[in-house]
Specification:
Blueprint: E1 6-9, E2 18-23, E3 29-32, H1 46-50, E4 65-68, E5 71-74, H2 77-95, E6 100-104, H3 110-124, E7 129-131, H4 134-148, E8 166-170, H5 174-177, H6 182-190, E9 194-198, E10 211-213, H7 220-233, H8 239-245, E11 246-247, H9 249-257, H10 261-268, H11 272-283, E12 289-292, H12 294-297, H13 302-315, E13 325-328, E14 347-348, E15 352-353, H14 357-367, H15 381-386, E16 394-398, H16 402-405, H17 409-417, E17 421-426, E18 438-441, E19 450-453, E20 458-462, H18 475-485, H19 496-507, H20 519-524, E21 528-529, H21 571-575, E22 608-609, E23 628-633, H22 649-654, E24 660-662, H23 664-670, E25 677-682, E26 685-693, E27 701-705, E28 719-722, E29 729-730, E30 734-740
Parallel strand pairs: 6-7, 6-16, 8-9, 8-12, 9-10, 11-22, 12-13, 16-17, 17-18, 23-27, 24-26
Antiparallel strand pairs: 1-2, 2-3, 4-5, 4-18, 14-15, 19-20, 20-21, 23-30, 25-26, 25-30, 28-29
The chain binds iron/sulfur cluster (SF4).
Length: 743
């Protein structure tokens, strides 16, 4: 057993808080404070503090399970792997490679996400791969690419937040989802800055705000348009910035001017004086930011909604400037890296597009395969799950629990049951794993090494701290073994660093370029921000090649451009003396790119693009039969589908089960008292949970957290209406009726 303390990162959300892990004499591991990581400076939420509980063999799988006579029974690894390879091989032979589905997760390390995408396309030959991160931030990604030519959740580090003048936080309850991040906003206010929170609930985050706007669910797009209208009407447009750094303003301006404040008030329920106050607070300081999260993004118009908030930033000159910009607060642990390296339906490593011939050639060369052998883009996550049991006959699933987390979850559960074959890799017997034909028990965060990319775009090294229990293997070993059994002997190593070295080559020159990052740098520098291109191999004089899509300029503490070269000169080069013609010198080291877009945006012409957008209603609005909005979200003591956190006693004590949050006026109309069981019914199904009555929610809206399976499963109710660009389902708004359940 390893005996020293190991610096690493939390297994859960995208903040990726730093922590130290030390083995205990009893064979466990304890979390201790790690103050050198600047994001959390030692602070952890309850989930991070208690994370070692999930390492215990009391709650986890330690043997493969194979279904026999309708029951999952322990099996050897060879039996389980042979069964999977045999089933996948015969389904492919009978129905073609696209009958094999693959579903990944935003919690997988970059090495695993990369290998899973390669495994699907090279070993299985299927186009049918996507991942649960599609349900997380795909609308922000699509909006960012449209406007800036590049998607990186935050284009600046969190440490910039306290130094800006105003932040509009749209649909984020980070006091519950990532509590250590709240200090950046407290410091902002201590420094004289202001915080505006947009949320239909008065959350613990909203309670910190200087101004809380409570729009009707599904109307964030109209709200942003109303603010932009006022910016124009009040003469607050930064004309010079718009002229010099953007394109498409006139169309976006015309669209916004059609959204009169009084009209926006009627759509959103936010009063005109509040709109004016928000505009004043946002526009008066030198610098300001807009940060969005799942609230505006998980809508069937999520991409347009993000576009509207970006338009507000662009019109006021608040993007690509120091201490200003638009950012998305990514949710899942590796939600950022997981969307960059190939487990998405349309994507190759380095954030390359699967339908780009040059990208296919580059990656195929790294993989040693014919570019023409790579399948094309496949279905998005919900569409893939919805097709299970039809043309997709089998599914290999890693790090996801769609029985709890997918929209219209009862339907997805039925689709999973209708498969010819389901194989799941997980650390616990999740609700989805319980449906599988084969379950493989795999290693987890503290037991393995690998890289994660945080919501800041900071690539981090999660380090192995303890020996995994006997009987479990890593996802990388699983893919290595399955590849060999399916006839691909090479190209699927099990050493994460070896895979990262390949990922560096595969990402080189792509938008998310990791080629200048090494494991050693990640340890020595406490993470490196991408893009970070590798140095040219044989320069004879220092040059300054720019990252293809971003500025690597640094900003000092005052927010001024510190004027760093993209490739600062390397001391090793200086020591080597004058270059000889043709000499090969150690390359300069790219410092990474904490702040994007300061010089130019990642579009062809370097300008940010306004996107003309207009309000449209949610796919399902309240009516006589279903008169109330349902919105869903998280609570502080549980994480996503709860597969891990529901196995931690301390967290269960704090958040034992689902509830229905509703306003006293709605409760009075229903005749409901605190704790009464309420049935919430949508066109997809019915869920039951106790009432929690609070004035901190709109009277026309109920809220349910989505962490639990069974009777109180919130996703039984949610609407899978998809955003036309991002294919994001509309988790955040649907129409329901609420009834008191008679005893
Ligand atoms: Fe872990 Fe997120 Fe909590 Fe930090 S905020 S300890 S990363 S769950």
């Amino acid at each position: 057993m390893e005996t020293t303390s190991t610096p690493t990162h939390c297994p859960y959300c995208a903040l990726q808080c730093g922590m130290n892990l030390s083995p205990t004499p009893e064979g466990g591991v304890e979390v201790t404070e790690r103050v050198d990581f600047p994001v959390n400076r030692g602070a952890l939420c309850g989930k991070g503090r208690t994370a070692p509980a999930v390492l215990s063999s009391r709650v986890r799988l330690t043997s493969p399970l194979v279904r026999s006579g309708g029951t999952l029974v322990p099996a050897t690894w060879d039996e389980a792997l042979d069964r999977i390879a045999g089933e996948l091989g015969s389904i492919r032979a009978g129905h073609g490679p696209d009958a094999l589905g693959v579903f990944g997760g935003g919690g997988l390390t970059n090495e695993k996400a990369y290998t899973l995408g390669k495994f699907a396309r090279v070993v299985l030959g299927t186009s049918q791969i996507d991942y649960n991160g599609r349900f997380c931030m795909s609308s922000a990604a699509a909006g960012g690419i449209k406007a800036f030519g590049l998607d990186r959740g935050l284009p600046f580090p969190l440490e910039d937040i306290p130094k800006t003048g105003c932040v509009i936080l749209v649909g984020s309850n980070l006091a519950e989802t990532m509590p250590p991040a709240l200090r950046f906003f407290s410091e902002l206010r201590e420094n004289g800055g202001t915080l505006i929170v947009v949320d239909p609930r008065r959350t613990r985050t909203a309670e910190q705000a200087d101004l809380h706007l409570m729009p009707r669910p599904g109307t964030d797009l109209a709200l942003a348009l109303g603010l932009l209208h006022l910016v124009v009407a009040e003469g607050r447009v930064d004309e010079e910035y718009v002229r010099e750094r953007t394109s498409g303003w006139e169309e976006a301006r015309a669209a916004a001017m059609a959204h009169w404040p009084e009209h926006v008030e009627r759509i959103t329920g936010v009063s005109v004086p509040q709109l004016r106050e928000a505009v004043r607070m946002f526009c008066e300081p030198e610098a300001a930011m807009v940060l969005t999260a799942r609230g505006p993004e998980q809508q069937s118009k999520g991409t347009d909604t993000v576009g509207a908030w970006i338009n507000l930033c662009l019109a006021t000159g608040r993007a690509g400037r120091p201490l200003s910009g638009y950012g998305c607060l990514t949710g899942q642990g590796n939600g950022q890296g997981g969307r960059e390296h190939g487990q998405k339906a349309d994507q190759l490593p380095g954030y390359r597009k699967l339908d780009d011939p040059a990208a296919r050639r580059h990656v195929a060369e790294v993989w040693g395969v014919d570019p023409d052998s790579l399948p094309g883009p496949g279905r998005s996550a919900y569409e893939l799950l919805d097709a299970l049991g039809t043309d997709i006959r089998s599914l290999l699933l890693m790090a996801s629990n769609p029985v709890v987390s997918a929209p219209r979850a009862a339907h997805i559960e039925e689709r999973l049951k209708s498969l010819d074959f389901l194989a799941v890799c997980d650390v616990v017997l999740s609700e989805t794993a319980a449906l599988a034909d084969v379950v493989l028990p795999v290693t987890q965060w503290a037991e393995e090494t690998g890289t994660m990319t945080s919501l800041e775009g900071r690539v981090l090294l999660r380090q192995r701290a303890i020996t995994p229990p006997a009987g479990v293997r890593s996802d990388l070993e699983v893919m290595h073994e399955l590849a060999a059994r399916l006839g691909v002997e090479k190209g699927f190593p099990t050493d994460p660093e070896e895979i990262f070295e390949e990922l560096r080559r595969a990402s080189a020159g792509g938008p998310a370029d990791y080629s200048g990052i090494t494991y050693r740098r990640l340890v020595e520098e406490n993470g490196v921000f991408w893009p970070c291109p590798a140095a040219p191999a044989t320069p004879t004089a220092p040059t300054a090649p720019t990252a293809p899509t971003a500025s690597a300029s640094a900003v000092d503490d005052d927010g001024e451009d510190a004027g760093l070269d993209v490739f600062p000169e390397d001391p090793a080069r200086d020591e080597a003396g004058p270059a000889q013609p043709g000499a090969v010198l150690p390359g300069p080291v790219h410092p990474g790119t904490p702040r994007l877009f300061l010089d130019r945006f990642a579009t062809d012409d370097g300008r940010a693009r306004f996107v003309p957008v207009s309000h449209r209603p949610a796919a399902e609005e309240p009516d006589e039969e279903y008169p109330v909005f349902l919105t869903t979200g998280r609570v502080v003591a549980q994480y996503q589908s709860g597969a891990q956190t529901r196995r931690v006693d301390e967290l269960n004590a704090a958040a034992p089960g689902p509830f229905v949050e509703l306003h006293p006026r709605l409760a009075a109309r229903l005749g409901a008292a605190e704790g009464d069981p309420l049935a919430v019914v949508s066109r997809r199904g019915r869920a039951v949970a106790p009432a929690r009555i609070t004035t901190g929610i709109r009277p026309d809206t109920v809220f349910m957290p989505f962490h639990w399976p069974g009777e109180g499963r919130a996703n039984t109710l949610t609407n899978p209406a998809l955003d036309p660009t991002s294919r994001m389902p509309e988790f955040k708004v649907c129409a329901v009726r609420v009834e008191v359940v008679e005893p």
